[in-house]
Amino acid sequence: MIYGIGTDICDLRRIRATLARRGDRFAEKVLGPRELAVFHARRARVEARGVAYLATRFSAKEAFSKAIGLGLRMPMTWRACEILNLPSGQPVLRLDGALAEWFAERRLRGHVTVTDESEYAASFVVVETIEATPNA
């Protein structure tokens, strides 16, 4: 059963301006440790790839916070929710700490997708309840 759905769109120009104004502090506030390593690697190769990566993660976290109905209130924090990629490239949610516990207590599972174009990043998140398996 669907618990919640969230979507978000992010203007890459706004992310670029924030990075120019605040530097890496902005990325360090939004990204978890594994995401931050990817951000730095992509940005070192091509600035635009790093910005797009940050924007997709920002957007996905906004969408996730909407899907779970908390917004950015505890236990939902920017860094407790990471959007990582499987070897296939598929984005997946990785939750840590109190947010992971909150999510598990409610028997939830999340699905995320992200995309970006020249000036926008967008994401969509579906959170579902994990049905209890009946005793056989």
TrEMBL record:
InterPro entries: 4-PPantetheinyl_Trfase_dom, 4-PPantetheinyl_Trfase_dom_sf, ACPS, Ppantetheine-prot_Trfase_dom. It catalyses: apo-[ACP] + CoA = holo-[ACP] + adenosine 3',5'-bisphosphate + H(+). It comes from the Bacteria. One of its GO terms (molecular function) is holo-[acyl-carrier-protein] synthase activity. Its main location: cytoplasm. The keyword Metal-binding applies. Coiled coil: none annotated. Keywords: Cytoplasm, Fatty acid biosynthesis, Fatty acid metabolism, Lipid biosynthesis, Lipid metabolism, Magnesium, Metal-binding, Transferase. Mg(2+) binds at residues 8, 62. Residues 4-108 form the 4'-phosphopantetheinyl transferase domain. Its cofactor is Mg(2+). It is an enzyme of class 2 (transferase). The keyword Magnesium applies. It is found in: Cytoplasm. Its EC number is 2.7.8.7. Transfers the 4'-phosphopantetheine moiety from coenzyme A to a Ser of acyl-carrier-protein. Belongs to the P-Pant transferase superfamily. AcpS family. This is Holo-[acyl-carrier-protein] synthase. The gene is acpS.
